[in-house]
Specification:
By secondary structure, this protein is mainly alpha-helical. Helices cover 56% and strands 6% of the residues. It has helices at 2-16, 32-48, 54-74, 81-97, 106-112, 153-169, 173-182, 189-195; strands at 102-103, 124-125, 137-140, 150-152.
Length: 199
């Protein structure tokens, strides 16, 4: 749900940066059912039925990441998706290594106001012996702030990729400036003179 909230904030930032959200309707988006299914599973196991069978919940959590991976592979041609894929891979490694649960630190959970110990399924929780803890939820947005939650290095990569993707596709001022900085002005005669005559 943390990433869903971040996604909404990214969309809100588009008109503020002079972009047009209507351009998203023209995207050649492939495998939309994969990402929709992934989000539905996440909402069901975390929010709607958190007290269900832990083994089933862990399995469905893993399936949700497989569906998200299928969506990213299908849309790897879009700008920023490499960052999103790198972040999703980091999160998936942590979750698969810990049997379907994202490990979190006690400090991060307390800072975000989340329970440290619970009997219901939590997609991110404190584990006695976590594997690859560096890829777990080691950061937190404090409880006193809006959208307080724990997050990982992978989530940071996903957020960066989402910003690049949405702002590029919606042609905001940020994306235009980024393209301008990376593309030289070949029509400037001073550049032609400085480079010497063409032979």
């Amino acid at each position: 749900m943390f990433l869903v909230a971040i996604g909404l904030l990214v969309l809100i930032s588009v008109p503020l940066a002079g972009g047009r959200l209507s351009k998203l309707a023209n995207i050649d988006l492939r495998g939309a059912g994969f990402i929709f299914g992934s989000l539905v599973l996440q909402v069901l196991i975390v929010t709607v039925f958190p007290g269900g069978n832990p083994t089933l919940h862990r399995a469905l959590h893993l399936v949700s990441y497989l569906l998200a991976a299928a969506f990213l592979v299908a849309n790897r041609h879009l700008p920023g998706l490499r960052y999103v894929a790198a972040g999703a891979l980091a999160n998936a490694v942590a979750i698969f290594a810990n049997n379907g649960v994202m490990p979190a630190t006690a400090g991060a959970l307390r800072a975000a106001g989340d329970p440290v110990n619970t009997k219901t399924f939590m997609n991110s929780t404190l584990l006695a012996h976590p594997r690859v803890p560096l890829l777990g939820d080691i950061f937190a947005i404090p409880k006193a702030w809006p959208l307080h939650n724990v997050f990982s290095l992978g989530d940071i990569c996903i957020t960066i990729g989402a910003v690049i993707a949405v702002h590029s596709l919606c042609e905001t001022r940020l994306s235009r400036r980024r393209r301008h900085e990376h593309v030289p002005d070949c029509g400037d005669p001073r550049q032609v003179e400085a480079s010497g005559p063409i032979t």
